[in-house]
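REQUEST ID: PR-0412
SUBMITTED BY: lab tech R.K.
PRIORITY: routine
TASK: structure prediction, single protein chain
INPUT:
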Amino acid sequence: MEFVHKEYITILGKKIKAGESCELNFGVANLHTTSSIDVPVFVERSKKPGPVVLFTAGIHGDEVNGVEIVRQLIAKGINKPKRGTIICMPIINVFGFINLKREFPDGRDLNRVFPGIKKGSLASRVAFELTTEIVTEVDFILDFHTGGAGRFNAPQIRIAKNNPELDQLAKIFGAPFVLYSKHLKKSFRNTCFKLGKTMLLFEGGKSFHIDNNVTNTAVNGAKRILHHFGMLQTKFKVTAPKKESLFITGGKWQRANYSGMFKASAIISTKVTKGDIIGNITDPYGQFNHFVRANHTGYIINVNESPIVYQGDALFHITTKLKK
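STATUS: complete
OUTPUT:
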């Protein structure tokens, strides 16, 4: 990854010189009560030249696990670089975070309105501010997400295919899985790609939930990336992943054949064989019990943890093909 050292960077209209630290406020609109809400943006700059790295979370207001990951990076001082600059934004969609809702008050998904419009909807204005006032100054982004609708994601990095630099960075991060996925139109990742910014998108856990294993995986991965860039302070220990990341080139959702009460028995991130019992669906009356068997062999990278499912609901995401 190439970077150009700047004596000054401009974030949210403020010039910040090398060696400075500051806390800025990212805010686009007040609450309907006229109360102001200021979202802190933490900027830490070393005097030594290096990349500008941005850690983001909370694009979806209900994905609190991502917020916890960035919070830990700040609380532990991992965001204070040996060289270069680290910017942390723990909560982007503060409106959704206040109400623990995925979307903005206007019902829009922030991750579907990038790069935004200056005079557009509330979500679009936030996207525009983030894109023009922060992203333009950075070299690398790590964006933290979780699964939604009660579906628990195994810790994974998502990147586009045919990009050797992203492949290398994903390996360095060291999540158990790397999933190749296309850029979605008007997503944060797609906008960063169009701007020539390198991004890794992390998925792990589910909404309304903080999982220690997912959080530890992400924090350790962030440390490995910073160490790779020569930015991590020497006081922090960097450990190699327990296993090499598995690169997934294909996967398939297994859906419910019946409606009812659902309980998964297969463990996330483990390999199952076709025909294995991986869960069961029952009725509330003790008269029906359907065993869910794996349709094919592969690793389980997503589990539906909702206790109630309907016919056709996604239950498991199981890999079909791995990169050799």
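NOTES: The radius of gyration is 21 Å.
REVIEWED BY: pending
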